Amino acid sequence: MGKRKKEKITYIDDGRSLSELGSGQRLSQPTTQPRASLKEQWNTYWGAVKMMFGPMLVFIVGLCIVYMIAAFIFSVI
Question: Is residue 30 within 8 Å of 15, Cβ to Cβ?
């Protein structure tokens, strides 16, 4: 059994990210996407805030209830 020479692998950086490997785009070709206006950005932000307001309120009320129960239990002991 003769020793086999291990094949040396050479990696070449062509500037692509992992998500671009299948699409064939290169980083040297800038993708020009129009930036959203301030009104669109504000509407997106406000929509996200409105969507999270209910769960945040439920969580804060839950924390207050747990705190009151714990304070009552430790004040009785």
Answer: no
Tell me, what's the pLDDT at 12?
81
DSSP string of 15-66, one letter each residue: S--GGGTTT---TTS----PPPPHHHHHHHHHHHHHHHHHHHHHHHHHHHHH
Helix H or strand E segment including 69:
helix 38-76
Distance of CA 65 to the CA centre of its chain: 31
Q: For tokens 């785009």, what's the residue?
A: 25
pTM as predicted? 0.49
Contact by Cβ (8 Å): 37, 47? no
